[in-house]
Structure prediction request, 308 residues.
Amino acid sequence: MDRERLVDETLMLLPTLMRLVERPSPVETGEISRRGVATDVQVSPGHIQVLIALTRGPHSVGQLAEELDVSPPAATQLVDKLAEHGMVDRHNDPEDRRVVLVDYVDGMHEVARRIVEDRRRPLEDAMSKMTDREALAFVKGLRLLAESFAAEDE
Amino acid sequence: MDRERLVDETLMLLPTLMRLVERPSPVETGEISRRGVATDVQVSPGHIQVLIALTRGPHSVGQLAEELDVSPPAATQLVDKLAEHGMVDRHNDPEDRRVVLVDYVDGMHEVARRIVEDRRRPLEDAMSKMTDREALAFVKGLRLLAESFAAEDE
DNA sequence: GCGGTTTATATAAGCAGCTTAAATTTATAG
DNA sequence: CTATAAATTTAAGCTGCTTATATAAACCGC
Prediction:
């Protein structure tokens, strides 16, 4: 098969997709405002990642950095903004007072679920046009690509 | 099938993949320096997109902006940098002197091919671990996702 | 042909999200 | 009990985008 064409198409598609994903959707901020959170909230993909990670329980800043594959300062920043908007809370780990545990503010679990839900919509739309096999292959491809690029810079 | 899990995994994977793709690979800049172009060249994904687009012939700045789905100033910037490094050239379209046609500098076609080749490597690695069906499904997924996100902001 | 509008590009200013380097606080080890 | 290491934060800086504005060329109705 002509892999070369597929590779080139991916090289063209990926950055464009990246820009689209980053591009703040006006709909989204509208949705959020309707829920009583500040109108001008900017939920970036990184923030969504944090919100999703927290559904699996509280995380330290370092764990978040590792899970998202960003530097610790970047994780701090993400948490900062979510905390500003009252979505998450920091408290010290009693076991090791250096670590900062991040968790949802009481009651915000549900709000987070709905914010993530908004972000999920375009993905669900896209996946609805794939067969099960295709959807699985797509996610597998993302995983392989992430591994491959990660391997590149050691 | 459990699409919800796939969607969530994608929401976690995509931003991380984006960061990895953006992350300048030290190897790459080294490769480039060996070819006589300045050592500190930073070939971003956007620049790669331009180089690939130009393999299909000269493009106006506006055409590049449209093809990469970026604003015209962003396209100007991308061309600026490639021109600084002597990769591409601007000349006026004789048919319409407002449009700036961008094309490879004489002899740089081959250099561009090799620069793109470097960028292609991690993708080829990843795709080598997929079946033909999977590779096709993966690219189809990227296309669908791009369409879906593009549809979101009108 | 001639003013007024549209189109293609460029310049300017600004912002978001990352990075590395340095500072701070707490834990650990000898 | 001091020296070192680890977790987080602060600070500074860079890149790649954006919108708003400027400039030059083309087009259009008359």
In short: Chain B has seven helices and three strands. Residues 3-113 of chain B form a domain with the Arc Repressor Mutant, subunit A fold (CATH 1.10.10.10). Residues 22, 42, 44, 46, 70-71, 73-74, 77-78, 96-99 of chain B lie near DNA strand D (CB under 10 Å from a C1').
